[in-house]
Structure formats: C-alpha cells, structure tokens
Amino acid sequence: MRPYICEFTKPGDRVLDPFSGFGSTLVAAGLEGRRCVGIEIEESRYCIARERLEALGMDQATLLLGDSEALAGTLDPVDLVLTSMPYFGCGFESENDGQLYQASNYGAYLEKIRTTLIALKAALKPGVISSLR
Question: What per-residue confidence (pLDDT) applies to 91?
Fold first, then answer.
C-alpha cells in the first residue's frame, strides 16, 4: 500500500481504510507520515489491529469499530480511501451479520461494497475526486 499512499497523498494527509482488518494499510500510512483512520467491523480483528498500532507507537492512527457505511457520515474529511477488499466466499466464521464474508451471494457482496463506497464519498475532502482525473 505504501506506493499508492505516496503517489496519491502527501505527508500529513489523512488516509482512510474502510475495511481495515489487521491494520496493514494504517501501518503503511503511518510509516509514510500520513494520518490514518481505519474502520473494522469484526471485533477480534479490531483488537488485533489496535494492539499492533499501539505496539508500533502509531498515535496518529484512529481505529473505529463498526460498519463503514454506517460510520461514513461521522468521519472527518480524508484525502484518500484505500483498502484491500474483504474476500468473498472464504468461509470465515463471524457472529456479525454485517461482515462481508457472510454475504449470501456475490451480488449481495458487491452491493454492500457499492453502497459503502458511495457513503464514503462524503468523507473525501472537497476537490479530491476532481484532482484524480
């Protein structure tokens, strides 16, 4: 993720990973001098990512537990949304109904990705999208 972070942001910018998992994108952003925010719906992964960020002393990282689509409207503006998409159909066990691993079919999985990314558009700083054209 570091090459993408360097290409599309500058030091001090905010990077959002809406499916942060174990926090790899947040670590990459922190190593490149970017502020970062991650959202993870799975509590066990959230806890592991939190421990990882704390162990690395990444105080500039914000990690939220919850659904990215639901939290999108509460976020401070970001300069980049960057993530590694959750896998579909991998059999990951979860008690969380919102977990994309639990999507009943590929269409439902894609629809949740679509609605989440649309919701996250509101979190982008003004002019970010036009600057990528």
Answer: 54
Q: Is the pLDDT of residue 117 over 80?
A: yes
CA–CA separation, 90 and 12 (whole Å): 36
The three-class DSSP label of residue 68 is: helix
CA 45 – CA 23 distance, rounded (Å): 9
- Give the contacts of 60 (CB within 8 A, at least 6 positions apart): 30, 34, 35, 36
SS3 content of the chain, % helix, strand, coil (to 5): 45, 15, 40
In angstroms, rounded to a whole number, what is the distance separating the alpha carbons of residues 101 and 60?
29
Cα angle 103, 51, 73; round to 5:
50
Instruction: Give the separation between CA 81 and CA 24, rounded to whole angstroms.
Output: 14
State phi, psi for 83 to the nearest 5 degrees. Answer: -155, 165
Rounded to whole angstroms, the Cα distance separating 75 from 4 reads 22
Render pLDDT for 64-116 as a digit per residue (tens, 0 to 9). Answer: 999 999 999 999 999 999 998 876 665 555 555 555 555 667 888 888 888 99
pLDDT on residue 72: 95
